[in-house]
Amino acid sequence: MQPRRVAVLGGGPGGLYTARLLKLANPACDVRVYEQGDPGSTFGFGVGLAAGTQRKLEAADPDTLRDLVAAGLRHDMTMRVGADSVRVHNDRLIGIARTELLAVLQRHAEKAGVELDFGTRRAAGDLDADLVVAADGVGSATRENGSFGGRIDVGKGLYLWCGTDFALDAAMFAPVETDYGTFVTHAYPYSGDRSTFLIETDEETWRRAGFDTTTAALGSAGTESDETSLRFLEQAFAEQLRGHPLIGNRTRWLRFRTVHCDRWSSGNTVLLGDAAHTAHFSIGSGTKLAMEDAIALVDALGEAENVGAAFARYEQVRRPSVERLQELARRSRLWWESFPSRTGLPVERLMVAYMSRAGNVPLDRFATTAPDVVRAALEQYGGEPAVGNLAGWVLGRPLVHGGRRFPDRTSVPELETLACALDDPWSPEGDELVARARDTDGVLVTGPPARPALLTRLDLAERVRLETGVLTAVEGPAELRDDLADGLVSGRTDLVVLTEETA
């Protein structure tokens, strides 16, 4: 179909990119972006663009990608725990300032003939357009006032975005211990003199530090940053910051909100990006999802005969990918919310645990990109260099636990059965299972054969192992032995039981 007039609500990356692609596909179409803010105002610091997203942008619009890459900064990834650190090479990952990202997208949208209307708040029902694209963010008024079946799940942990005035030499994950508890930074460079510092903590630590009080004092509105938190964290991360300050930009403690919608369209209006869905920042970015949405929506409009058919096609194509990423992100969020319990692992094994936390990067795949890291992690785990098939080698290592010796990781004694049917091992139901395990000499965590259920069992077993010290084993289908091997190296379980069930 070829709409005559298209209105885009929201001048963020998703809205601007949609507008440009629509105008390139339909030069005669009147495409207008409505953004309530000013052209140069934005929240946040840097944005990451991974290799997969870059490939999709290259196919859809190489001119825009070329300018984004030129404005960005490539970097590797490191993890630091105390004096120990490990580095993973990744020459396709780039960081770019959000201000620069928007400037590039605004420039390319206008170059294509898109009209940009700043400084005015508009609603979908007020616009005279054949098609309205609502890219109005996580707090979308379009979603909240429409019939999209929207709902929001709120995470337990707290985080804040800030920045600093120097460029790290690589992305960095680093915990620091304070008198109140553990804070963890995810930091990365995005220009020659700037880095993003995202900092997370758990609610107990946040309250002990008094940040519940500073957050309440700021209120829910306003543009000020939580300077008390910034100054405390500046001292806590002084080593990582190398004496530089933390910079705020409406910086305050938040809990991550995961947006789900039963429907992404209603009438002539369609949701895009954060308005339709969000995924935790530790594994996906709103920018990635929104720009990939834009590509799919414009493709669907080019293939369909009418708006309804185009919206149905767009959702049919995008929803499976989005929901898969949301599930990976949910697992990643739970892992990060419980991160401090794992810092006793050697940093190489911790990096393996990080890479495999959502079940998306198996050990053998990680070994092809970071062979030195995996080699060291396996030697730490097994006491000698790994040889042959990795999963087979991992399962074949002996174990000494509580004075008992096991010839390999599949020789499991009689243990108390702990049936797991949870989505969240850190829920109150998970607490009850951990409490049950305390009164045993060891537990075998059982459950359905499906892979998501197995990954959850491994997480629950890790809680049991770390919090009680009892011998833990996890049951799973032999066809998922790679996941079980990842769990062993990552310290999620001591032993495994292979079954003949089908995942």
TrEMBL record:
Keyword Oxidoreductase attached: yes
Signal peptide extent: none
UniProt GO molecular function: FAD binding; monooxygenase activity
Name of protein: FAD-dependent monooxygenase
Organism: Amycolatopsis mongoliensis
Keyword annotations from UniProtKB, A to Z: Monooxygenase, NAD, Oxidoreductase
Taxonomic path: Bacteria, Bacillati, Actinomycetota, Actinomycetes, Pseudonocardiales
Record-linked InterPro entries: FAD-bd, FAD/NAD-bd_sf, PheA/TfdB_FAD_monoxygenase
Domain FAD-binding per the UniProt entry, residue ranges: 126-326
Claim: Oxidoreductase is one of the keywords in the record: yes
SUPFAM superfamilies to which the protein is assigned, alphabetical: FAD/NAD(P)-binding domain
TM helices/strands, residue ranges: none
